[in-house]
Design a protein that fits this description.
Blueprint: H1 2-22, H2 31-40, E1 44-47, H3 49-52, E2 57-64, E3 69-75, H4 78-91, E4 101-106, E5 110-117, E6 120-127, E7 130-137, H5 141-151
Antiparallel strand pairs: 1-2, 2-3, 3-7, 4-5, 5-6, 6-7
């Protein structure tokens, strides 16, 4: 009986590790969490929801520190966020040359695309119905990566 109990505990523990390792998915930030973080980092954050349109987004912010900008969108649906991700990604085909460094990744609720080429660094990252986006001079690549990592994107 003791052996059965130990095997059961081991099996449950192993299952828990597998579930955590494969991930239940990334956790999206709210619009207010994005805004709060960016303000703390010294960015001016502007609500651009009206310009984008409430038929596409629930909330949109543009964060600008005078060097580069990062946009945040909470779409009206995950399908709309996926569509926005694809639209942005396709718009950067012009930078994709033989010297460009392109990275794509996808998980169960998220996708990420980065492109480094022709002096620019592009990041598009979607989690559920949210997305961050920037197309900036490659000089700011490390700053952008840090912000994206801090936000979980």
């Amino acid at each position: 009986m003791k052996k059965f109990f130990k095997l059961s505990i081991l099996s449950i523990s192993l299952l828990a590790v597998v579930l955590v390792a494969t991930g239940c998915g990334k956790s999206a930030k709210t619009a207010e969490e994005f805004k709060s973080y960016m303000v703390k980092e010294g960015f001016t954050v502007t609500d651009t929801t009206a310009e984008i349109g409430t038929d596409i987004v629930k909330k949109a912010y543009l964060a600008d520190n005078g060097k580069f900008m990062i946009e945040f969108y909470q779409a009206v649906s995950e399908a709309e966020a996926k569509n926005g991700f694809t639209t942005y990604k396709n718009s950067f085909a012009q930078y994709e040359d033989s010297n460009a460094v392109i990275k794509n990744s996808q998980s169960n609720n998220a996708e990420r695309y980065t492109l480094l080429g022709q002096g620019y660094y592009t990041l598009i990252s979607r989690i559920d119905d949210t997305m961050i986006y920037t197309d900036s001079l490659d000089t700011y690549k490390e700053d952008i990566i840090k912000i994206a990592q801090d936000l979980g994107y």
